[in-house]
Amino acid sequence: MERTNAPVWFITGCSTGFGRELAKIILSKGWNAVITARKIETVADLADGYESAALVLPLDVTDKAQVASAISKAETTFGKVDVLVNNAGYGYFTSIEEAEEEKIRAQFETNFFGLVNVIQAALPGMRKRRHGHILNFSSIGGLVGFTATGFYHATKFAVEGLSESLAKEVGPLGIKVLVVEPGPFRTDWAGRSTSRTPVKIEDYMDTVDARMKISLEGSGKQKGDPIRACEAIIKAIESDASYLRLVLGKMAYDLAVEKAETLKENFTYWKDLSLGADYPDAEQ
């Protein structure tokens, strides 16, 4: 019998990385977890010993019908979804110029439109109960752009903008939104999970190709600890704070602060031009 009084977490992308570690911690705390992945065999072991509290489902977030079915099964089994974790996603290394359209669109389908599919399926139940948390995994790459991952950044900047609007729409309904922005962590993001288009244009060898090699060689050696990150996420969800963003890891924190300062410098430098763009009789 499921733990009906315990919170229910619905997590996408549980085969590796943050999703997998978060599912393990949730179950160990005596809570309920809906564990999903495209290939169910990659996550079936997570339910061992937790059969009454774990619901393991196949889920491709780009398949709207499968998404709707998974949310329905979660609500039928546990009666609710308290925390929705949109973790499914992957990286794509390429120069902007050399990127392949099929790979660009595929990444947006998973990283952005897939996230939208799950949110839209979960919101009716959350609205009805006037309660819930939606946790969207972005990245420090949702705040700061680097070479070689421009289209990944584009998907995560889209998640950031969507989350800001979502928080304002559902906040009055008792639903909280949290955007998680990790830096480099020892997940599979820069390894098997990453798609890539080799750099062939010589002009990009010192920028795009160099960054690509550094990232791939550093996979598995990052300073970020996924378990500590997941524990931080749970603390943020349990807190009464209403802040939208949670940056994870020192590198991400430093880059985020630097970006905020750079934005302020940018806006201040062009202040006169900015204000001068209004009609002369407009209130300043």
Walk me through what this model shows.
The chain is of the alpha/beta class. The chain has one domain (8-271): NAD(P)-binding Rossmann-like Domain (Rossmann fold), CATH 3.40.50. The chain is 45% helix and 14% strand. The protein has 8 helices and 9 strands. It has helices at residues 17-28, 64-78, 101-129, 150-170, 205-217, 226-238, 250-269, 271-275; strands at residues 8-11, 32-37, 54-58, 83-86, 92-93, 132-137, 175-182, 195-196, 245-248. The strands form 2 sheets. Strands 3-2-1-4-6-7-9 form a 7-stranded parallel beta sheet, sandwiched between helices. Helix 4 links the parallel strand 6 and strand 7. Helix 2 (64-78) runs parallel beside helix 3 (101-129) and helix 3 (101-129) runs parallel beside helix 4. The longest helix has 29 residues, at 101-129. The chain starts with 7 loop residues before the first strand and ends in a 9-residue tail after the last helix. The model has no long low-confidence stretch (mean pLDDT 93).
Provide the descriptors you would attach to this structure in a database record.
single chain; 284 residues; alpha/beta; Rossmann fold; seven-stranded parallel β-sheet; two-stranded parallel ribbon; 8 helices; 14% strand
**Uncertain regions spanning at least 5 consecutive residues:** none
Which structural class is indicated by helix and strand composition? alpha/beta
> Helical segment tally?
8
The level-1 CATH class = Alpha Beta
Task: Report mean pLDDT, rounded to a whole number.
Answer: 93
**Major sheet description:** 7 strands, parallel
- Helical percent range? 40-55%
The proportion of residues in beta strands is: 5-15%
* CATH H-level superfamily title: NAD(P)-binding Rossmann-like Domain
Strand order of the largest sheet: 3-2-1-4-6-7-9
CATH-derived topology: Rossmann fold
The helix/strand order is EHEEHEEHEHEEHHEHH
**Can you tell me the number of structural domains?**
1
For the CA atoms, what is the radius of gyration? 20 Å
Examine the secondary-structure arrangement and name the CATH architecture.
Answer: 3-Layer(aba) Sandwich
Alpha carbon gap, first and last residue = 63 Å
